[in-house]
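User: Here's a protein and a ligand (adenosine-5'-triphosphate). What would the complex look like?
Assistant: Let me lay out the input and then the predicted complex.
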Amino acid sequence: MTSSTAPTFDSPALALQGIEHAFGDHRVVKGIDLVINPGEVMCLLGPSGCGKTTLLRIAAGLEAVQTGRVCLDGEEIAGPGRTHRPPEKRSVGLAFQESALFPHLSVLDNVTFGLNHLPRRERAPRAQSLLEQLGMADHASRYPHMLSGGQQQRVALARALAPRPNLMLLDEPFSSLDARLRDQIRDDTLHVLKHLGTATLLVTHDPEEAMFMADRIALMRDGQIVQTGTPYELYCLPVDPFVVTFFGEVNELEGVVKNGQIETSIGTLKAEWLEDDTAVQVMIRPEALRLKALNLPIGEHRESHVIMAKLLGRASLVHLCAHAQNGEEAHLHARVPGVYLPAPGQPVEIDLDHSQVFIFPRRGASPR
Ligand code: ATP
């Protein structure tokens, strides 16, 4: 692609190529390539400070590119020392955690504000339609100070979407809302984005939010993308331990490969793809542990047994003492759907859903 490339049907809505960025001598983005296809919702996920917002600001044009290129619809719009198209000329819609509305304008006027390019008669219907899709049609004549934080955020999203940008850039737009409201606004926003077919880059540090919203997720750590893929790929085919732990609590065991197998406190695991004597980290999601109560007296501690069980709401969390045949013990957590509250001391048999068990060679460990 060159700076004069004409948009084609197959052009990505956004392509970030070789982006690096530093504040002084602090390198915060370290060589990122990312493509968002037309109509795709991409979530940029990662812990605080890993560079997500900086990358979004570079895509928006709020931060000048230092190294790399930004292309929108196949056209280069920013590169170091060359092009830098300003944000207002990029056909991007922006919404942030606190998206300030114009206080002196009504809700309707806030949403029509960016529609000066349209004939006057088309502006209000376009704005009304978006307000309706975001559940705010009845509030069109109100002023921002008459709205709750969640309602203001809905209006901010409608305002950003009204000019029908080719790309929406959303930075933690739901994080200031309480949990119930957040779920509703997320759901409404997802439906509007999909209805309009707007390509979207959404920054979040919340893995559940990313899985709810995204067609694909790019998981970042320390200025780099660790894995890009569908929510299924990141959850079920993680490339390293960081990806596994980012999506929730895991039970961690250590072991050594012998004859293509690893002996653990919950049985033998296959690992034929690893060389013998490789030291490994075994990561088991709590939902991978399936429990069967054994018909043995409570307190029969030669078997694996329950330490305690807690109801969390949709699932129960069972703390277990797992016994290996060699006498080793491990404290594990099992997450069981619904209400499952066995008594402390209850002997159990532990079965594993191997699709939620991940084995990685231990970093820095020398073969034993
Ligand atoms: P969060 O989820 O907490 O918002 P983030 O992943 O979005 O974090 P960034 O906001 O991109 O991370 O910040 C990445 C790093 O760059 C942080 O260490 C931050 O302190 C630093 N940083 C961001 N903006 C600036 C700036 N304008 N000047 C100096 N340092 C900055």
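Summary: Residues 60 and 90 are 8 Å apart (CA to CA).
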